[in-house]
Amino acid sequence: MSYPYSDNEMIYDRQKHRYILTEIGIANGMNVILQDELNMTGVMNTAGAIKDFLNDISFFVYEYIYSHSTDRMVTEYILAKKPHMRDVIKTAMISQAKYLKDNGDVANQAGINFGNMSFVSLEEIRGDRRISPYTKSQLANAGLLYTGRMRLYKRIKYREDY
Predict the structure, then answer these.
(1) Quick check: 114 and 43 in contact, CB under 8 A?
(2) CA 68 to CA 50: how far, in whole Å?
(3) Would you call the peptide bond into 4 cis, given omega within 30 degrees of 0 as the criterion?
(4) What is this structure's pTM?
(5) Residue 155 φ then ψ, to 5°
């Protein structure tokens, strides 16, 4: 099999150079039908909202990985071309989807913790708190949050076939 590849649970977007879950991937990974969830909240354009939600999950996970990388090109290549990374990304995105479903996008919060009426810095909200603790753990265990230098033993063909 050639990597990256798309299936009914996750597609590889060749313009954005990242995997994005599908509605089927969410349904199988979370046992949730996004269409039903959005209908209950009264969202009018469910197709657009679902597309945005799935894109946001992918964006948040990939940007979190890249924020720890010393070489984005190498990291992007590894995420696209290494077979075991596809499952890591899929699992991390499902964890992130659960987190967003349960908590909303905390980056959109105002910086006030109404539970104890204290302020939270916007940098903290829009940085580390945006990512699920489970997602962070999965990415760290896969070595994707390593901030040292990565070496590849062959020259990569950056964005030539992915």
Answers:
(1) no
(2) 28
(3) yes
(4) 0.84
(5) -70, 130
